[in-house]
Design a protein that fits this description.
The protein has 502 residues and is α/β, with parallel strands linked by helices. The protein is 41% helix and 22% strand. It has 17 helices and 18 strands. The protein binds 3-methyl-2-oxobutanoic acid and zinc ion (ZN). Zinc ion (ZN) is lined by residues 13, 168, 170, 204, 206, 240. Zinc ion binds next to loops.
Length: 502
């Protein structure tokens, strides 16, 4: 069985999608979850692109032990130097250099001739290789490049020392058949004496025509042994190939692909949830593998079939990706010991401090809600990241007066250092009134851009999860709040975002 490496680029290509930016702390938290999931390579950022990206690469490189950590770099010395500097703390560093190879990009973007591109590849790949033992080369827009020129460029990169060759479908244009042919052709035209199986060929597909997963798997069939992808398929435009889809496709159809990944698939659901909690971008209910409806059967015929024999309509089980159970697991009288034990069973490895915070939230919830399920615990833990932010403003209480015949009024009380401040505001509904009362206390120029609410579990006493995005200057900041009361969840989410701004 061939081993296929999973190269996760959620923190680099994924973060390039609108509204998906993460701060360094969030990136490290997510990278640690990727390590638990067992990904082989984490692309932590594009070190030269901003001081924040540099810091993110540096912090992720320091934080994880097992995965290779990669930083992207253009084919220029200053980019490569920045990538290498940021990767200094990595146990297994990789410099990932790229340059476009299609005539379209050469003419309109790079303003370079083919000869200049070839020269840059030979020179800069060799330079990167003189610094770092592992160098990946990407031929941007490979699928729209002249195949002869693409092969020349790939061969130059191989001769200069690149051990990993990535052929991206940058604009999601290729069909699976074309990808198969492209990988087959490039692998068969390597320099004399170079064995294609001694190199790592990599697929990096975008999903503009909804074929990212199919194209990546076609590349595997043509000899690729690395797939570049993002959790929940986030990324530029329509996104990148979704990690959970390629991993579960190979897991479910092992015999067909004759390929396997080393991932712990039971961490997939949690990883998806964590990303949504951090970015505030919800997964569509019908999303393959991790969507809320991926395992629910609505029609009577299907339900009947599944009750008789699950395999009639289910090709993979919710357990295989770690979907938590909805049954009651803990109650009001459960103590810290039982709580910790349940956390351990669910595979959470919390520090004492995080465990204490999560336990406090659990106790609060258990007071309001009769049954606390694994899904609730999942939500509590994914929100504990929100609690870790330095909080200039602490939520104390709110009172609202609202109805369809009156103007909504809110009284919100917050603690700032040792002092409590209370303000009253009216608004278009109770949430708006609360946010305006908070604005009066905080006195910061922020604008609400987005507001979403969804329930974590079923039932009247379900936890509501609110995600807000506020704009402060040019920055879009995400805040999250969780409560059985949706107004309280909204207040917490808004305040979480404001505290991040501050
Ligand atoms: O889509 C793309 O071509 C990329 C490269 C920079 C690898 O993201
Ligand atoms: Zn890309």
């Amino acid at each position: 069985m061939k081993q296929v490496k999973i190269f996760d680029t959620t923190l680099r290509d994924g973060e390039q999608s609108p509204g998906c930016s993460m701060n360094v702390r969030e990136k490290v938290k997510f990278a640690l979850q990727l390590e638990r999931l067992g990904v082989d390579i984490i692309e932590a950022g594009f070190a030269i692109s901003s001081p924040e990206d540099f810091e993110a690469v540096r912090a992720v490189a320091e934080a994880v032990e097992k995965p290779v950590v990669a930083s992207l770099a253009r084919m220029v010395k200053k980019d490569i130097d920045a990538a290498w500097e940021a990767l200094q703390g990595a146990a297994h560093p990789r410099i990932h250099v790229f340059i476009a190879t299609s005539d379209l990009h050469l003419q309109y973007k790079l303003n370079k001739t083919r000869e200049e591109v070839l020269a840059a590849v030979s020179e800069q790949v060799a330079y990167a290789r003189s610094l770092c033992p592992e160098v990946e080369f990407s031929a941007e827009d490979a699928t729209r490049s002249d195949p002869d020129f693409l092969s020349q460029v790939v061969n130059a990169a191989v001769l200069a020392g690149a051990g990993i060759i990535n052929l991206p479908d940058t604009v999601g244009y290729a069909t699976p058949g074309e990808i198969f042919d492209l990988f087959t052709a490039v692998r068969s035209r390597l320099p004399e004496g170079v064995d294609p199986d001694k190199l790592t060929f990599s697929a990096h597909c975008h999903d503009d025509l909804g074929m990212g997963t199919a194209c990546s798997l076609a590349a595997v069939r043509a000899g690729a042994s690395q797939i570049e992808c993002t959790v929940n398929g986030i990324g530029e435009r329509a996104g990148n190939t979704a990690l959970e889809e390629v991993v579960m496709a190979m897991d479910t159809r092992k015999a067909f692909y004759q390929a396997a990944t080393g991932l712990n698939t039971r961490q997939l659901y949690r990883t998806s949830k964590l990303l949504s909690a951090i970015t505030g971008i919800a997964v569509p209910p019908n999303k393959a593998i991790v969507g809320a409806n991926a395992f629910s059967h609505e029609s009577g015929i299907h339900q009947h079939g599944v009750m008789q024999e699950r395999r009639t309509y289910e090709i993979l089980s919710p357990e295989s990706i770690g979907v938590p159970q909805s049954r009651m697991v803990l109650g009001k009288h459960s103590g810290r010991h039982a709580f910790k034990e349940r956390m351990d069973t669910l595979g959470y490895f919390l520090s004492e401090e995080d465990l204490t915070k999560a336990f406090e939230s659990f106790k609060e919830l258990a007071d309001k809600k009769k049954t606390v399920t694994d899904k609730d615990l999942e939500a509590i833990v994914s929100h504990s990241g929100a609690m870790q932010h330095h909080r200039a403003f602490h939520y104390v209480s709110f009172v609202i007066n609202s109805g369809n015949t009156i103007t909504s009024t809110a009284v919100v009380r917050l603690r700032v250092e040792e002092e409590e401040k209370e303000r009253v505001a009216t608004g278009d509904g109770p949430v708006d009134a609360c946010f305006k009362a908070i604005d009066k206390i905080v006195k910061k120029d922020v604008h609400l851009e987005n507001y979403t609410i969804q329930s974590v579990t079923e039932g009247m006493d379900a936890l509501g999860e609110v995600v807000v995005q506020i704009k402060s200057g040019q920055n879009l900041i995400t805040g999250r709040g969780l409560s059985t009361d949706i107004i309280e969840a909204s207040v917490k989410a808004y305040l979480n975002a404001i505290n991040k701004v501050l």
